[in-house]
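Tokenise the fold.
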Amino acid sequence: MYRNIVLTISLFCLANILSAQVQLPNSNFEQWTTTASGNAIPKYWHSFGDADCQLKGIYSWGCPFMLKNHSNRVTGHSGYGCEIYADFVGGVALVNGVLTTGQMRFATPNNNSSENHNYTDRNNTGGHHAAIPFTGKPDSVIFWCKFNMKKKSNVAMAKFHIHGNVSYKDISTHQSTTAQKGKIGNAFCEIKDPNDHKWHQYRYKFDYYNEQNQKVSYISNRPSYILVSFSTNKITKGGNAGDKLAIDDIKMVYNKRLASIEINGDVLPEFDPDKHDYVIYGDNHILPNITVSCQSPHAQASIEQPTHENGHQAIIKVMHDDGELVYTIRFVEEVMLAEER
């Protein structure tokens, strides 16, 4: 029986350099580019300025108005951020401010039509490379927002669609439970205005779905793309002209923390998932067996059990899509403790 557990706060995180496969590119909005129409937009992101307007007949007159830029570079939570705003098109129709990693498409004046949508443009039909490769299965997403709304009751929207190798669509009427080919996971985020004009951080969890569109805790399919859309209002033509939403520092969170550690079937009583280095005093003649469980169903743990050769030390590596986190447990003979004294 081991006793006298000594805890030392020691974070030993061997995280890999984050790539576009597990994080969004330009998620801090520091890189900006200019479209053919002269609009400045954050690199890898898209809005009205480079939308695909397919309106026909008498409605085609509206295309120049639809393609007016509705995004600005602003002072962000850190560095620059991107601000989107709602406005009237042609002085008549109110449109929400939109920012997306996909290609925006306008095909009909009916705002609720499925023909109007953002989509992952795998084949680059819009010519803007509006498709973000993505292979991660994050547990949650965090981002910073600042509101400047005409009414404090207005609710903004952010949608994160993780999907397979298909031209996935984000339609204004879609809900988190909407079935769609290639669907793997999503985070639907309704963002309420705190009405203080300050930057606030928000966190939302991802849900994952099987091929029958049933919510599951674990999914084995490896994603291919992610489609992200922000809007100044969750309702089409909702809100008011001049509503503004600033966005910055988006980060996918991969939970590598352990849920428990057991030694010979007994739960480590003083286990803390945020403390990663343990020293336990006891009898080293009988080597213990270590078992663990992870907080995230998409994380995996490997255990190097303590042996006489490795200095009676257990090394637990928790691996997720963005790297690994290491816990260590060192078992020390009580005789050694007495000698140290």
The chain has two domains: 3-15+256-340, 32-253. Residues 3-15+256-340 form one domain. The longest helix spans residues 334-340. The mean pLDDT is 87.
